[in-house]
Amino acid sequence: MTAAQAHDQPVSTALIRSEARLLVPALMFIALVVAAVASLGTPLITSVATRLHVSLDSAQWTLTIALLSGAVATPVLGRLGAGPHRRATILATLAIVVAGSALTVLPLPFAWLLVGRAAQGVGLGLTALMMGVARDHLPEERSAATIALISVVSIIGAGVGYPLAALLAEFGGLRAAYGLGLLVTAIAFVTAWRSVPAAPEGRSAHVNVAGALVLAGGLLLVLFLAGERSLWSRHLAVAVALAVAAVLLLCVWTVSELRTKTPLVDVRAVRHPAVAGANIAMFVGGSGMYLLLTLITRYAQTPHSAGYGFGLTTFVAGLVLIPFSVLGFVAGKLTPRVRERIDGPLLLAGSAAIVGGGFVLFATARSNLAELLAAMGVLGFGVGSFSAAMPGVILAVTPKSETSSAMSFNYVVRSVGYSLGSAIGGLFLAAGTAKGRLFPNHDAYTTAALVGVAAMAITTMTSLALARRRSPETNPITAPVGVPSLGRSSRTGS
């Protein structure tokens, strides 16, 4: 090595480390923005109904349509992100989100607001791509921790966006609140343009268009049925027919994915015990987690005239989410360190048990606001650690090139689970609402909370079963860089 080469070597290493330091906050910021913007519909539903003169059911679609478009776009973006055009895919998606954000700000009719919200929801598919970038371009010691934090901020984004949007809506009006989304998405686009590197060479990704359309149809029906609770009570036959159609579409999609040479999702990899178990835990656990979030926020806003509740305004109710976000982030920072000593599935089990404790706390103690804040904090810590541990379990048996695709499937499962949790909460509270009354009975919240305890118990047992397998298929030699292998025995050499 020449003297010049010896001099250049540390400079090159320093440059790489500098780029890594800049990349980590960029990836986390983009993941946080798309999650927060997609959740903007939650605190603004009432404002949309009153300002645009539509029913509350119609205004609810400003949230539902973002979740729908996100669930449909996620597997497609995950496949595109596995190929050579990942950077272009990220930038194009963020451009769509920015355009959608502009539509929500402009004084256009309600239909255009829905179009804008659908475009904003597409950004939810970027979380898995951020993980793929982190796994490809960060040093091994940083990639696992960064992927865990990306997973966490994609969850706590709602806790960040909710109070800010509510505050702006209260003092600046509906369009001002949506203006926040336009501002941060524009910043996210510029951040991605400057910071996101190109994908490694030698990759290819072909999108199975027919499979994507069939999956989109199935997911659309599933999430629609989960969101439209009144359909089950008023038009049961129609709801059942749509449910059967959804199952058939998803079955057709699964068969086509197994037969095609260019699958949208590698279904064979999804059948791996570690991946299958993790996705089952994500589905059931996600349902329970979102159920508790729904119960606490709704209980806090119930007026005193109902005989319980605290009658909080939308903005103050949003502040109740602060313990959720703060403790969720803390758990996300701690989990990678704990992961060095405890297997991922055991972390999932422990996290699910913590969320179950949040349900117990809410079911037994909610007479004052401090108890609600405590339950929300416990929920945030459990959700944060669960979300941070999940990628390690899946990516331990996933090739680097399939990171975006594997995690995108997990996020589709999470979206469906969240929608189901919201629907379950609505169904139990509706069942506990006496005829002629606007608010449910106090005991309806307890019943719904006990259902959540059962869901988290199932999640805990599923995760423990996954941990007991000590999967012999997991080879530490093939475990991905930066992500610890699944079994502790492979780390100890026993």
Automatic annotation (TrEMBL):
<feature type="transmembrane region" description="Helical">
    <location>
        <begin position="372"/>
        <end position="397"/>
    </location>
</feature>
<feature type="transmembrane region" description="Helical">
    <location>
        <begin position="308"/>
        <end position="332"/>
    </location>
</feature>
<feature type="transmembrane region" description="Helical">
    <location>
        <begin position="175"/>
        <end position="193"/>
    </location>
</feature>
<keyword id="KW-0472">Membrane</keyword>
<feature type="transmembrane region" description="Helical">
    <location>
        <begin position="274"/>
        <end position="296"/>
    </location>
</feature>
<feature type="transmembrane region" description="Helical">
    <location>
        <begin position="22"/>
        <end position="46"/>
    </location>
</feature>
<feature type="transmembrane region" description="Helical">
    <location>
        <begin position="118"/>
        <end position="134"/>
    </location>
</feature>
<dbReference type="GO" id="GO:0005886">
    <property type="term" value="C:plasma membrane"/>
</dbReference>
<dbReference type="InterPro" id="IPR011701">
    <property type="entry name" value="MFS"/>
</dbReference>
<feature type="transmembrane region" description="Helical">
    <location>
        <begin position="344"/>
        <end position="366"/>
    </location>
</feature>
<feature type="transmembrane region" description="Helical">
    <location>
        <begin position="90"/>
        <end position="112"/>
    </location>
</feature>
<feature type="transmembrane region" description="Helical">
    <location>
        <begin position="58"/>
        <end position="78"/>
    </location>
</feature>
<feature type="transmembrane region" description="Helical">
    <location>
        <begin position="444"/>
        <end position="467"/>
    </location>
</feature>
<feature type="transmembrane region" description="Helical">
    <location>
        <begin position="205"/>
        <end position="226"/>
    </location>
</feature>
<feature type="transmembrane region" description="Helical">
    <location>
        <begin position="409"/>
        <end position="432"/>
    </location>
</feature>
<feature type="transmembrane region" description="Helical">
    <location>
        <begin position="232"/>
        <end position="253"/>
    </location>
</feature>
<dbReference type="Pfam" id="PF07690">
    <property type="entry name" value="MFS_1"/>
</dbReference>
<dbReference type="InterPro" id="IPR036259">
    <property type="entry name" value="MFS_trans_sf"/>
</dbReference>
<keyword id="KW-0813">Transport</keyword>
<dbReference type="InterPro" id="IPR020846">
    <property type="entry name" value="MFS_dom"/>
</dbReference>
<feature type="domain" description="Major facilitator superfamily (MFS) profile">
    <location>
        <begin position="20"/>
        <end position="471"/>
    </location>
</feature>
<feature type="region of interest" description="Disordered">
    <location>
        <begin position="469"/>
        <end position="494"/>
    </location>
</feature>
<dbReference type="GO" id="GO:0022857">
    <property type="term" value="F:transmembrane transporter activity"/>
</dbReference>
<feature type="transmembrane region" description="Helical">
    <location>
        <begin position="146"/>
        <end position="169"/>
    </location>
</feature>
<keyword id="KW-0812">Transmembrane</keyword>
<protein>
    <submittedName>
        <fullName>MFS transporter</fullName>
    </submittedName>
</protein>
<keyword id="KW-1133">Transmembrane helix</keyword>
